[in-house]
UniProtKB/TrEMBL annotation:
GO terms for molecular function: 3-phosphoshikimate 1-carboxyvinyltransferase activity. Monomer. The gene is aroA. Belongs to the EPSP synthase family. GO terms for biological process: amino acid biosynthetic process; aromatic amino acid family biosynthetic process; chorismate biosynthetic process. This is 3-phosphoshikimate 1-carboxyvinyltransferase. Residues 15-434 form the Enolpyruvate transferase domain. The active site is at 326 (proton acceptor). Phosphoenolpyruvate binds at residues 28, 101, 129, 176, 357, 402.
Amino acid sequence: MSGHGQAQPMTARRAGPLTGRAEVPGDKSISHRALILGALAVGETKISGLLEGQDVLDTAKAMRAFGAEVIHHGPGSWSVHGVGVGGFAEPAEVIDCGNSGTGVRLIMGCMATSPITATFTGDASLRKRPMGRVTDPLALFGAKAYGRKGGRLPMTVVGAASPVPVRYATPVPSAQVKSAVLLAGLNAPGQTVVIEREATRDHSERMLVGFGAELTVEDGAEGRVITLTGQPELKAQTVAVPRDPSSAAFPVCAALVVEGSEIFVPGVSQNLTRNGLYLTLVEMGADIAFENPREEGGEPVADLRVRFGPLKGIEVPPERAPSMIDEYPILSVVAACAEGRTVMRGVKELRVKESDRIDAMARGLEACGVRVEEDEDTLIVHGMGAGGVPGGATCKTHIDHRIAMSFLVLGMAAQKPVSVDDGSPIATSFPAFLPLMARLGADVSDL
Ligand code: S3P
């Protein structure tokens, strides 16, 4: 699994309409953070609804290696006995973060201001991804990193024995970079400041405040200015992880493109830093009702009722990209099933995700008979209308869960079946994807 094991081909083909209720798993970003902040807090943090995907399980294992006690009680139910800020022990083994950029970057952040050394690695996908975006700011605290050419894993990080606080403007819109700097700032004296020009997902800020850190956010001329006061005593919390809007995107988009579908997806986050896809789908003419808005696990959520219907291509505002950065692969599938062109600009960050997602989607869509245009920072999909995509191809997933799920959704709507060469990475974020889609009526198989 996740690039370490055997490839698992999967195929999706058109079947009847999708109907019923889709309960998607816990939010991946929040699950990582719950384990990490639990490990840095004093006392017992209780977590319910934790995503038990491989990415998060790898973070749980890493927190044990740094000295926290992490206990699994039952489905989604975990507890973490933390060691306190600055209390991390030096791990005896190499920390293998599997497929997870979030896991490795956040963990590097939270160990970088302790006098310990750790070596990190991951699967073939993660070993290609740039770590310099995190190790550059961590060096300002006094940490050192020794990795492969281009700042790639495996990499050894030597934490700063006498860290200094940092003021850092993130050069790329990245919640992982922001969070790594904030987590490092926890064990530095004084105030660490992170400035982001565009708002990225704010789960770290919300949860740090929830665990008792002193953190303020101001909107200024430079952007969002986040100020954290170092060396707090984090207090153990009870965390109810809400459902993942990025996972909900797959059944929601499947229902929008499979003729006659109507599904209900409860508890989808409406956090403004995560809901860009949903705004975009509504602009494309999607029939989505946002019912029963409320707060769950500290996040605004709503139940979604989603119905198939005609969709039109649009220009996605580039400034919306950070709030839907993980959703462009599935959006490009919806775009292929819409009438007219969908233009996605300002998306070059997609090139450094689990795979180069612009290239992976462009090649797979072309193989399925869809016309696309791309440049470094842009993807344009020429829609073929409802039921219009020919399909009939095997698409490469490049060890990327979201590419795999996107092409399987395309197979549910295309004229001929669509296969993926390897669906095993789906287990990193949505282990129950296949049975959940099958219960809704989809024909997806791993044979
Ligand atoms: C995440 C941030 C995003 C996103 C990833 C999860 C996080 O990455 O793509 O899936 O939990 O902080 P970047 O920080 O690279 O944009």
